[in-house]
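Moderator note: this is an archived Q&A kept for reference. The question asked for a predicted structure of one protein chain; the sequence and the answer are reproduced below.
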Amino acid sequence: MRKGITLAICSYLAWGLFPLYFKSLTIVTPLEILSHRIIWALPFLLFVLAIRSQWAWMSTILSRPAVLTGFIASAALLSVNWLLYIWAVKNDRIIDGSLGYFINPIVNVLMGYILLKERLRAAQWIAVALAAAGVTWLAILNGHIPWISLALAISFGCYALLRKTAALGALEGLTLETMLLFPFALAYVIYLGTQKANTFASAWSDGNNMPWLLMAAGPITAIPLLSFSFAARIIPMSTLGLLQYISPSIQLLIGIWIYHEPFNAYRLTGFIIIWSALLLYSSEGLWRSLRQTSD
């Protein structure tokens, strides 16, 4: 239990610090960062699979084409989510990105109700209503819907929904998704080379550390996910649900304190409303979990 909680916290800490990493890639465009994230993650994931001799899942793909179709969709959603988040960080919208991951649990609940016909309890309905009120307040305040936050929450919610019903585990699934995205990422990097716009190649010839930072995107992507996957198997989902707010909290603080993104009292009000929804949602889930354990 202690090991699982430690691994989960480490995963969320790593995800929370992602803005610092993406900000360090100052001259690299979001799409090129995404491409290198995919390119360098694949050999790392294949290396882990080789160590574990974990290849049996390949037969599942060959015998069930429908599984491949589902992972094509999840790979597309994952790439959209990654690209949008990198773009948000690079364009000084870290706070908007953090909001997306704050409201993601509420979006998951709502999607379960709409798509999976799951019944919502009274406290969950109140949490959804509070989150909607907070988003509405931010929309009125900004003069437009917080589309970055909603797009991140919805894309990751749809991704989680597909992975929930997928036939493969976290490591195998991420490897397959990366394999599906790899040809497109490689083709884009090659295209940049033909246009003399390949940051990796130009930085390598200049002798600076940018290529190493881009190569690090592989393990930086895969290691937290693998740690999270292990933690999710040995600690209760209620505990995992409470710990998940570590990441957006760190991202929010980074946006405010390090990069000085605007965060006035009116914007804080919207966040407080949404945090109230999360507190109600998490507390109710934890209470039900403890009650079932005691029974």
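Archived answer notes: DSSP finds 15 helices and no strands in the chain.
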